[in-house]
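Ticket 4471: requesting a sanity check on a complex prediction with adenosine monophosphate. Repro inputs:
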Amino acid sequence: MSADEGPIVGIDLGTTNSTVAVFRAGAVEVFESGLGDPLTPSVVAMDKRGGALLVGRTAKDIYAAHPELGAAAFKRGMGSDLSYSIAGAKYSSVELSSMVLKQLKQDAARTLGREASRCVITVPAYFNEAQRFATRKAGEMAGWVVERILNEPTAAAIAHGVHGKGPDGTIVVVDLGGGTFDVCVMDRFEGALMVRSVAGESMLGGEDFTRRLASLALTRAGATYETAEMNDPEGITLLLKRAELAKRKLSEAESVEIVVPPVRRQLDQPVPVTVSREDAEDAFAPLLDRLRGPCRAAMRGAGLNKTDITEVILVGGATRMPCIQRFVRERFDRAPQEGVDPDLAIVHGAAIQAALIADDEGVGDMVVTDVASHSLGTSVVKHYGHKKVDGFFLPIIHRNSVIPTSQSQILSTVEPNQTQMRIDVYEGEARLASHNRKIGELIVKDIPRGAPGQQVEVTFTYDLDGILEVECRIVDTGKTVSKILSRTSTSLSDTEIQAAAKRLAKIKQDPRETPAVRDLIARAELLMREVVSDQRERLEAMLDVLEDALARRDPEAVERAVRDLERFVSFLDDGERW
Ligand code: AMP
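Returned structure tokens:
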């Protein structure tokens, strides 16, 4: 990094709140908004007097009183055609997010005393490429050079891990924000962070708890929430504001008073009601139930059970609620990690990642890897009896595969004398290719004429920046065509493409090629003839794990399997027995 480019900052672009921070002089510094608050509400609204668009707390207040003058939670619309109306004018998610990002740029510049131009922006791990692309675009529209799109749980784990690199282990990141719930299982292995699986609920967050509390208070006051919502939206807005404050108080206090405002046609005057934490938690029970599914799905996706978990990290303001902390402790049999403010964990991690990109010496040498949030694959023909049915999705890089990665599949021609094959590239999980998102295509020509079944090896290589290289090799002739697809940058320059190709070429190296691995396999195979049966079984199982990791070209898994096997082989070589 040259000195005049300035530092790279980290940005948490949240559904409810956004933050920006920098890592300097060995520590993370969160920038405050002009109002002295580290959190900037992700809300845009029009100032009634001046007609200007405002971002942040003032916008949030305007929006609460006049929903038609503002927009909030537009992160949910990222990557879609949804538009949001502000005083009659329509805005996309990208435009609104870019306004938030512009505001953060100004706040960063004010604190830094100079222009901040480069950043890392975090996104939920489940965001697909369109959503990541939209986020990057929002950053670019705001004048940022977006150096990296980083997964939120990865950022949170970095925030918790980098200051005290613990032993290897498995970390669960539980993120309950204002409007979303995400669970992510990650491995920490020799300083590297690796996402194993993600699951979540995109329509469940702290605000649902606020609404439950508001509804409980309204019932106690002798009215009903649904009727009030219909007849008196302003009354409900005011009640929700009070319930929000009460909910926060209940994180500390055993009971709280909520003054229920008058509600048209139901309550003529304000009614004070007292709600205990226990009552509130009873009202929250159905929401807590809904948290179970994603926890289970993430554990299943990682192939683990709770005894495998070594650390639990809480992210998002709503995890301050005692019932959430209890829930997490019971679910994972562990007390959550402390020390990082749950509201700021993601931005802390983003700032540290930014410093890593800038090669800041202070952050050490933590390596970050990631997973593919969706499967990437192609469309193939299936044979049912004599019938050929086209259009089935064949994943080549599976969802949750560790990236960077490179995976191959052999495809065959289906017609006699077929000399061309079109490789359509899709992202998604649906069985039918057309139900997934098409992200590009590649034509393979000059396949030798002959009977159906001429083979083409298709290799997908995917890197941390979301750049996918598709390479097709005609097995018979060795002729190869390849194409680089980037879905996270509008247009790649030639130099960028060359740089990407260089990086990808490195990833493609088959770990099997290393002489050390070949030698280890040979040693293990030799030993198998000599050892007793239970040791043989154990060796065989370890070799299977290694072979599987090699076939998947998963460098971390290979490393792990090699280490285990090496240890065992050395033991056996030394004549010792386990
Ligand atoms: P985030 O999107 O991470 O900023 O989360 C915001 C959510 O956290 C909102 O629903 C807040 O009501 C909630 N929240 C923040 N602080 C607390 C607290 N002390 N107790 C309970 N909920 C909180």
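Notes from triage: The first helix runs from residue 57 to 65. Leaving this open until the requester confirms.
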